[in-house]
Design brief:
- By secondary structure, the protein is mainly alpha-helical.
- The protein has one domain.
- Helices cover 72% and strands 0% of the residues.
- It contains eight helices and no strands.
- The chain has helices spanning 7-35, 39-46, 50-68, 77-98, 107-131, 147-163, 173-204, 214-222.
- α1 (7-35) runs antiparallel to α3 and α1 (7-35) packs antiparallel against α5.
- The longest helix has 32 residues, at 173-204.
Length: 223
């Protein structure tokens, strides 16, 4: 059965989409004006960061949820939960491992940094807890959380192999070697899967368990 979002969650999703999209566009414009990059070069630069991938997905999924109001397509329940997991990982990894390495030089860039790494990792999971179509997730949706981060890792490793520069230190093959980087990626994947499993378990709490002998009873009745 198709799930519809309530007016309140739809409006909140639209606000989150505007905030995330506005931060992305502002980052894009500032880099072109202040750092002299051409648009194509800036797209290539931004694509190197999982922060940008995840915030872009949140902006797109939240936009669809707000505009369409239906939990299907880009705002399918599995993608709503997966995008919440993606952005939570961004917030956790950045604020525990990377924040001390980043020092935005202007107030505008500091605000963008906060939107990407603090506001969205709090706002979008909070929206999911409040506004999602509850009870729509199944355990088969667990794998939905992996394609985006694995695609990012493959892309980032390819770029790093071509340029010698890696966006994040924990995927720096030149520094740590393939063995350690592979373990780091497996650990991150496990983190994503764990968050998605927690989301599914939370969403399914209180769901009635299927009676194991229901099928047999039905067959016996027909016989």
């Amino acid at each position: 059965m198709e799930e519809w979002l309530q007016p309140g969650p739809r409006m909140a999703a639209a606000v989150i989409a505007v905030l995330a999209g506005g931060a992305l566009l502002t980052q894009f414009g500032l880099d072109i004006v202040e750092r002299g990059r051409d648009p194509a070069g800036e797209v290539a630069h931004l694509a190197g960061w999982f922060t940008i991938w995840s915030n872009t997905m949140v902006a797109l999924i939240a936009s669809h949820a707000g505009l369409m109001g239906r939990a299907r397509g880009p705002s399918h329940p599995a993608l709503l939960a997966a995008s919440a997991a993606w952005i939570v990982v961004v917030g956790v990894v950045y604020n525990t491992l990377l924040a001390h390495l980043n020092h935005p030089p202007t107030l505008a860039r500091q605000l963008i940094d906060q939107v990407f790494h603090t506001v969205m990792p709090l706002a979008w999971p909070a929206w999911w807890l409040w506004g999602r179509p509850a009870g729509a997730l199944r355990w088969r949706h667990l794998a939905a959380v992996l394609p985006l981060p694995l695609a990012y890792c493959a892309f980032s490793l390819w770029v790093g192999g071509q340029t010698g520069r890696y966006a994040y230190f924990f995927i720096d093959v030149a520094r740590y070697g393939w063995g350690q980087v592979t373990l780091n990626i497996i650990g991150l994947a496990a983190f994503f899967v764990g968050l998605m499993a927690a989301a599914i378990a939370w969403d399914r709490r209180g769901a009635p368990a299927a009676a194991p002998d229901a099928g047999k009873a039905g067959s016996a009745a027909k016989g």
